[in-house]
UniProtKB/TrEMBL annotation:
It comes from Meloidogyne incognita. It is a multi-pass membrane protein. This is Dolichyl-diphosphooligosaccharide-protein glycosyltransferase subunit TMEM258. Component of the oligosaccharyltransferase (OST) complex. The lineage of its organism: Eukaryota, Metazoa, Ecdysozoa, Nematoda, Chromadorea. The chain crosses the membrane at residues 20-44, 56-79. It is found in: Membrane. It holds the Pfam family Ost5. InterPro entries: TMEM258/Ost5. Subunit of the oligosaccharyl transferase (OST) complex that catalyzes the initial transfer of a defined glycan (Glc(3)Man(9)GlcNAc(2) in eukaryotes) from the lipid carrier dolichol-pyrophosphate to an asparagine residue within an Asn-X-Ser/Thr consensus motif in nascent polypeptide chains, the first step in protein N-glycosylation. N-glycosylation occurs cotranslationally and the complex associates with the Sec61 complex at the channel-forming translocon complex that mediates protein translocation across the endoplasmic reticulum (ER). All subunits are required for a maximal enzyme activity.
């Protein structure tokens, strides 16, 4: 079974490489703001007003945005993942 490479279609990324810088800045910015809100919320809340669900949601949002921001940062500088 021989594979003819000339008949194959080239792979196209679902996200244009020209958008990598913009996505990096936006996602890392949102992630850093969420992280700052997480720390401010932890410091300013009292023992009675603290909610573990709220802290987990904020931490999940922050880690998601920081993770995808780091991914697009690596793609932007040429580290193909």
């Amino acid at each position: 079974m021989a594979v003819d490479i000339s008949k194959m279609h080239p792979y196209n990324s679902p996200v244009s490489p020209s958008l990598f810088p913009h996505l990096t800045i936006i996602l890392l910015g949102i992630g850093l703001i969420s992280t700052a809100y997480f720390f401010v919320n932890g410091v300013t809340s009292t023992k009675k007003t603290r909610s573990i669900i709220k802290e987990l949601v904020i931490a999940l949002i922050a880690s998601g945005f920081l993770g995808f921001g780091a991914l697009f940062l690596m793609l932007w500088v040429g580290i193909n993942i």
